[in-house]
Amino acid sequence: MGQNTRQLLQLILIVVAFTAGVVWLAPLQLNAVVWLIRILSPIASVGMAYVVFKVTRSPGKFPDHLRAIFKKYFEREGFCFAPVVEVQDGASVLCIYFQNRYARDLVATVAMQPAAGSFRFSRPPLPSASVQVHCPGVAFGVARIPYAVPQDYRARRLAFEIAADVRYPNWCGPMVRMHGGMRCGCIANLSQGTRLLRALGGLAFGIIHEEHPARTFLTVPHGVSDGPGTAQQIEVAILWQPPTEGIATSDAPRRAAA
User: Fold this and answer.
1) What pLDDT sits at residue 132?
2) 152 lies in which domain range?
């Protein structure tokens, strides 16, 4: 079932529930028609709520490998991903697992940096990381980044700010994976200078709004070496990909370029 169909069902649920509220709360003249609507509208609301619930909980056409590993993960415009620190040949490696919700290929850049504490502006002396991945439609993969952490910060739960930029070179196509992730902002939000300029610009127009980058917490194992180990370079691998003929990529016309 496509995203447009799910949105239509949600709209119908809103309309039916609103109608039920109006006919019961508004001071209407009671007659046979009003009583019929009063009786049927709550029943229809419950029925549509059940349909929407079943649709949103349905597994979808393709397996959700990312959700099978992580209960919570981030999403940026259909690109879902989750970072985790793993040990490879005795060294710590930052792994970013990802999966595409749409039928067409995407190019995504993920950036991560240590988060500043609540009462200080400086950040811990931990390395930042950035990687660009090309993810085919519905595909599931992982990016492995060498990530050496100072001895004093190992075996601790560390806070990081994370963001992503996503583009679809040939339009995204239909949505074919049901489950989404937690909202993640663009990479520009990682810059404190950019956030300050946006805040000042908002104040100039009387709008107080600051978009904070998403946060995640990672733990680096204690017994790892100080060096990068055998992983000297960033590696990106597609771990699963459906057959090309199994994906319908055009349930709607492609948008014309601006």
Assistant:
1) 97
2) 65-243
